[in-house]
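Task card 7
Instruction: Convert sequence to structure tokens.
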Amino acid sequence: MIIRHPKKKRIMGKWIIAFWLLSAVGVLLLMPAEASVAKYQQNQQIAAIDRTGTAAETDSSLDVAKIELGDPVGILTIPSISLKLPIYDGTSDKILENGVGITEGTGDITGGNGKNPLIAGHSGLYKDNLFDDLPSVKKGEKFYIKVDGEQHAYQIDRIEEVQKDELQRNFVTYLEPNPNEDRVTLMTCTPKGINTHRFLVYGKRVTFTKSELKDEENKKQKLSWKWLLGSTVFLSVMIIGSLFVYKKKK
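Output:
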């Protein structure tokens, strides 16, 4: 004869529900906490360049990281995906964990006909959203680079996905500068976690309009608030649903 222990089953049910709730809350809280460390440094450097046009000294606690990173040479803004990141010279692991970098040998971001620097960024890092949303941009949209106190605007006129090996074999074909155009190319790995291809976004320099950039940033800021509200509602529904299931079992 099997003896059942309802009380033990209820206690076990409580622990399972509690563990599930704590895990859900933990995931939602841990990722922003991890991201805040990298984002703090990014924002410090971005604010310094916005104020003075050049990078400023950071907190002493970040001195070691700063030595490894070097000073950012500019700021990349992509309003359509609510992205604003420091640009560094080079593509070391440390640089690509904290911003985006100019690929060695492709030139600089100071602008001018005959230039086409390649700016590379990671996607799929759990602690930060760098170039994760780059595949969401569309032709006709603009991105902006602030360098030496000036804003340069680039309109996206071409987007393509290329196999990694194909790009390595024909690098010049895909990124050859045009002597009559001022260009910048953005690149990230895709698909996330597999990284067999490279996602390329080509931009041609156009006239910069300050009011246009401000309008686009304000529009995306409103969308960020909607995302935050949606996340809060989702978490609330999960908690209420768990409590309902628990009471029903009880």
